[in-house]
């Protein structure tokens, strides 16, 4: 579903209480009874609850279930979106939401802005989008959470991405700056960059290739494996030095819900798959093939700098959460896009579903070179030493985001809230 925030301004305090009550009741009810919603909301007026329920149902934030055995409602993804945005607004993290800039298999990407006008990225995790297509075949692996498991998994994915992004950012990895997280949403900085899949040519593909492989190795030395390290999840930013006018390509890594620890049972498989994705893309797109084998998983973990995987689990994303999310990824086949890139360059060009995380975001480059890297990485230039010959020659889809100054503000309604609700048919 698409995010529609036009009705959020018309919700009153009682509406938010009823919507929150429905969310709380969804934790152990597939269909939250109306009586339970009234009890949790604790509104003074008995008829007020039913009026709020009617308002919320009309705009699709809650919904009835056909052929239900009792009177009740379930929380929709739209309702969860509103609750998350309401929390971000109260925390002064998000002030306005703009256009959608990416749609993926299990997430939606929007550009948003803070109160100061800073452009940010809103990522909404929607796990279950693919699984709903075959809901009869794979109902849901969490039997005791059959009612809200999709939303629960989306929460875990958002929490995991936020926690790993914070840890990687603190260690100097080129990732977007994490701003905030609530429920199934993550707010991060905007990078003025292009997804690598949109770049047709670079001047020195060998240096960019070596830099990306060094990032894979460095992640392993910090106890992590990306799990979906490919052209869809690598942004390339072109920076020009004001004094020397030298052009530098700075990669940024995005999309972390599928990231695993080096202690994972399939850690070596995911590591080799990340390496193979980069090698295959550079061979097909840039015609570059390295003479050196590797890097290899066993060689990369010989030098462990820090165990970020342990730190993240201790800071909020627990082992139980990791096991639940990993089981979901394994059962429903959403542990990365790499397995779908076997079809060749034609399939690569038409992969519109993968554009979800190919948004523009901002982060600082890293100049660290991993110790104990394989030969192909050891001989490479440092991350900030890319030459001016690496200027991007062609961008396949150059559609820059509009400036905030170009966007006309929505006029403030001249009628009262009560009259607006009556005009929209909300009055009962």
From TrEMBL:
It is an enzyme of class 2 (transferase). Residues 337-350 have a biased composition (Acidic residues). The keyword Cytoplasm does not apply. Coiled coil: none annotated. The keyword Iron does not apply. One of its GO terms (molecular function) is protein serine/threonine kinase activity. One of its GO terms (biological process) is maturation of SSU-rRNA. Residues 334-428 are annotated as: Disordered. Residues 66-306 form the RIO kinase domain. Its cofactor is Mg(2+). It holds the Pfam family Rio2_N. Residues 351-365 have a biased composition (Basic and acidic residues). PROSITE patterns: RIO1. Keywords: ATP-binding, Kinase, Magnesium, Metal-binding, Nucleotide-binding, Serine/threonine-protein kinase, Transferase. GO terms for cellular component: cytosol; nucleus; preribosome, small subunit precursor. InterPro entries: Kinase-like_dom_sf, Rio2, RIO2_wHTH_N, RIO_dom, RIO_kinase, RIO_kinase_CS, WH-like_DNA-bd_sf, WH_DNA-bd_sf. Belongs to the protein kinase superfamily. RIO-type Ser/Thr kinase family. This is Serine/threonine-protein kinase RIO2. It comes from Lophiostoma macrostomum CBS 122681.
